[in-house]
Amino acid sequence: MAALRSLLPCVPGLLRPRHGCAALRTFAAGAKFEYIITEKKGKAHNVGLIQLNRPKALNALCKGLITELSQALQAFEEDRAVGAIVLTGGEKVFAGGQHGSGSWAVRGAV
Ligand SMILES: C/C=C/C(=O)SCCNC(=O)CCNC(=O)[C@H](O)C(C)(C)COP(=O)(O)OP(=O)(O)OC[C@H]1O[C@@H](n2cnc3c(N)ncnc32)[C@H](O)[C@@H]1OP(=O)(O)O
């Protein structure tokens, strides 16, 4: 999963939460995200599901979405109960690509 995170666009100033930081504590407490939905699935709750949830913009990758996605990936990665992470997009499209007004650089191919 570290490999997947490394494919995420490189956003200047992107919050990269560290162990025990406030962002991860909020995530662990089940806080709602604005641009993604997270759930633990499976009988053993061992599958971390992340769904992109910015339907009005066809899940275009804005800074907020990328920040939340990075936080969710890290939190699931650090959850010993989670053995797999599934990332899904929208019904119509997975994602509309980089947000149209975005001025941030992208590292690697997505
Ligand atoms: C290194 C990486 C680079 C990249 O990521 S390059 C790719 C960048 N992305 C794009 O060029 C795709 C741009 N979007 C489109 O071409 C079209 O969309 C689609 C073909 C994906 C779908 O077309 P349709 O079904 O007609 O939907 P709609 O009315 O165009 O879009 C619905 C709403 O979604 C917003 N939206 C879609 N993609 C983006 C985007 N990339 N950035 C910001 N907004 C986006 C629109 O504006 C609109 O919103 P509103 O209803 O308010 O006009």
Automatic annotation (TrEMBL):
<protein>
    <recommendedName>
        <fullName>Enoyl-CoA hydratase, mitochondrial</fullName>
    </recommendedName>
</protein>
<dbReference type="InterPro" id="IPR029045">
    <property type="entry name" value="ClpP/crotonase-like_dom_sf"/>
</dbReference>
<dbReference type="Pfam" id="PF00378">
    <property type="entry name" value="ECH_1"/>
</dbReference>
<dbReference type="GO" id="GO:0006635">
    <property type="term" value="P:fatty acid beta-oxidation"/>
</dbReference>
<comment type="pathway">
    <text>Lipid metabolism; fatty acid beta-oxidation.</text>
</comment>
<comment type="subunit">
    <text>Homohexamer; dimer of trimers.</text>
</comment>
<dbReference type="GO" id="GO:0005739">
    <property type="term" value="C:mitochondrion"/>
</dbReference>
<dbReference type="GO" id="GO:0004300">
    <property type="term" value="F:enoyl-CoA hydratase activity"/>
</dbReference>
<dbReference type="InterPro" id="IPR001753">
    <property type="entry name" value="Enoyl-CoA_hydra/iso"/>
</dbReference>
